Predict the structure.
Amino acid sequence: MRAAPKYSYTIHSIGGKSVVSIIDLYSDEEPSMTVTNGAEVVLKEIVAGEKRSFSYAIYRDSSGHWDRVLLGESGGFIGFAPILPGYNQISNEREALELLAVQWVEGQVRH
């Protein structure tokens, strides 16, 4: 059995919404489960540690690309989606956050 996912995270407040930004720290030198495969566990750990849920979540996978983590009403993991539909090559956290914010201002993004 692989070790639990290794990750870091940052909490952002953008326009009154809380966004957790998760970075997968997977390494071939020290293999572990990836955030992609352990997203449910990662979110539970972050929510428990911070003692709150989040409006949105994004993550950088082990290849360096950013995606949205889809959250249920209770803040639990549902799945993954591109931050911007049809645009799958976001490799910068700031760009990922800006694209997410633009979409919710325009009412195009749900949790």
Q: What stands out?
A: Residues 35-50 form the longest helix (16 residues).
